[in-house]
Amino acid sequence: MSRRRPGCIADSSMALSFAVGILIAMLQILGYGFRLSPDSSLPTNSKYLNHFSVDLHHKLINLTREIQFVQQQIKDNPNPTLSTSEIIKKKKNNKTDIAHGTPELTDTRRHFLEIESLESVKIRENEPKVLILTTSKRSTTRMQAADMVDNFLSRHSIYQIHQPEPSSDKDPLIWTLELLPHPELEVYRALDRLQHDQASGNCAANGQSKYWCSGWHADLWYAARGSLNLALTNNRPLSLVFPDVCKESHKKFVKAWHYAADACEAKDLSCYFLNYTSCPRPEKFDKSKEMFDLKRTIPDKFESLFSNHHALKGKSTVKLWDVHNAAPGEFYNFLLYMYLTRMRYWVRQEVMKRVEEFKLKEPCAVMHVRQNDIALHDNWRRFYYPLSAYIGEAKDAIDAMGIKTIFLMTDSGDVIDETKKHPEFEWRWMEKHRFRRNEKINFENQFPSGSPKEESIALLTLFHLASECRLFIGGVSGFGTLAYRYMCLLHTKNVWDCPPHRVVDQHKAYTGMHDNPDPRHNKSSEHFGKKAVKYSGYTETDKEGVPYPEEVKGSPEHKQMQNHKKEEAKRQK
Fold it and tell me: pTM for this structure?
């Protein structure tokens, strides 16, 4: 037998790569084009067409697997005389073939898994970089397959969906998963082992934290930063538990997280998001097991991964209301929030559909204007400012970046009306019911539509739309800072790449607890309409001339205001 010429292995590999490409293209045509536009010469019975294309689809998948396996073996095989048929024979005799759904994965190449076998698969060592999940069973529906994939992803947060998912019953049931990059991988690997492996061994030993039942930011950001971070630090799994009544002002939310009260039977995070633990939710909160601490430190086991990361090291600290940490700390904390909010298949599909239908033009700016209930907060009343104050604050950045489109996020119908005064911009907002200033509402009444489920999907859509823009404009709000964090994570492919921001500082109207008549009709809430305010070039006529407490020299409010101005001047410097 003559010696194989140099380059033959590479040539065979290139030919096989080309063949794989052709087969994948054929698969896409058959899976996506054929089913949507069947040949008129074929029988028109949809059931027949579906089975016909499914059969071809699976034959192509199997053939593609064989070619990819041979291609990899040719690259790795030290014996150049081993024939292709011998390689395939060797594959078929290999009892640890991952294509048949073996539970333990032991190398880092691309692997195929049968969707129906996912329940028994647990990946904890030598994670493959790419997983392709598919099915050979005609009886498996898209929603059944999606549920099985979701359950797998719940226990394997180290993987993210890499390609578009099947979105209709005509699409082939294929999911492509990709291993997360560093340092997310290390954090999520630890969470998988803590919240699923360790937790399921003794659920009664888990620590507990209550659902906050406040706003979206407070509920989920503090659950992540205050409790999940402590779970990782102390190596003790976490379970979230309902309070007896979610909100005193909304006593109908009993034994429920108010954002999920009408979303599913569980009425908790699992309605929208993948399971953060393998343990069932405890029925009653046990104070002795409480885990909550708002320290913003990164656990020692992860600290160097983030502080020494080449893309995070030396990044300036963003000065935004609830953003206090340098880039490594903010990135780490937001990863914990994202772990709790990994969307289920039906939510992913709905949010993606709404984002695509919205067609937001770039370059754009996000403007978050919260009014209505901010004057009702007992110990954090904030002043209203009109739309022109936000525009004035950001004018330099808007002009410099050539922005003409502003994506407006607001809880107020009155703010929507104000956009008519500024026709120089193309204003975009999501159509939904919003309260107006003359309506009687409670603090943190988040459901003007009457449906917590609809409002929650709208919020998730808002966050993902915001991430498409390049400038953030807002006030003092946890929701606004959360939207900004989405922009830092998603608006470019770089690691924690935060865009420019401009913030109207809605400083406190009063401090401490006090009587709370509806202050939208008193001097604290109608601040911008009743006093002369100079704020970033914006001036409003004094309508009543009544001095505010902070204007009276020597008053506690005046001292507080002076201190605030000094701090702001120091920060700006």
Answer: 0.74
